[in-house]
Amino acid sequence: MSKRNGTDFLAADVHARLRAKILTFEIKPGTRLVEDEISASMNVGRTPVREALLRLQGEGLVSREKGWVVESTDPSNMDAIFESRIAIEGYATRLAAARVTDADITELAALVDEMARFEQMNRAQLNQLNRTFHRRIIEMAGNPFFLDMHEKTLFYYWNMRLPVIFTKDQTQEANDQHTVILSALADHRADAAEEAAREHVRTTYRIVKDALEGF
């Protein structure tokens, strides 16, 4: 392996590890990223670290102004974020309808059943179940590019730290929509699955928008 190829490999590894930490909020928005500290913690030189940070900058996950910083999402981008979610999740759910297996449906049904007991859990637990449900549908679409885009739109959404608390009725409505999505997937009804997914995101969009307008 040439020195250049070795550096590329290390940069790709550092990029993947940092990206995962940022997207899962292990590294929180506003955190300063110091090249020397990253080099030491990952046991690599500064060159692959710098290249990895440049890639993350190109993806909009970090910025560079007097040092590297994990980006925070501007609430003014909310419309664009939800438009992206509607497009990605809608079409991915359409593809999933043609590709899901009986085992996939069983797995999703278990998640829907668990979310139905939302009054017995805290919001963080419910959010995790919800994210797993939607992520699994994206994975079932069989397109890794959709999964990558889905993760980024969710990052920008959660990164906004929106002052929104879903009511019991709103949470129940979301769960009812999960059931509709699941039914369409189980019957391999692509049109219905896509529209159900789009309506589900639109519903969240309306709730968030109403909350922000009154904030």
TrEMBL record:
Regions crossing the membrane: none
SMART domains xrefs: FCD, HTH_GNTR
Xref: InterPro entries: GntR_C, TF_FadR/GntR_C, Tscrpt_reg_HTH_GntR, WH-like_DNA-bd_sf, WH_DNA-bd_sf
Protein name in UniProt: GntR family transcriptional regulator
UniProt xrefs under Pfam families: FCD, GntR
UniProt key word Transcription: yes
Alphabetized UniProt keyword annotations: DNA-binding, Transcription, Transcription regulation
Domain HTH gntR-type: 8-73
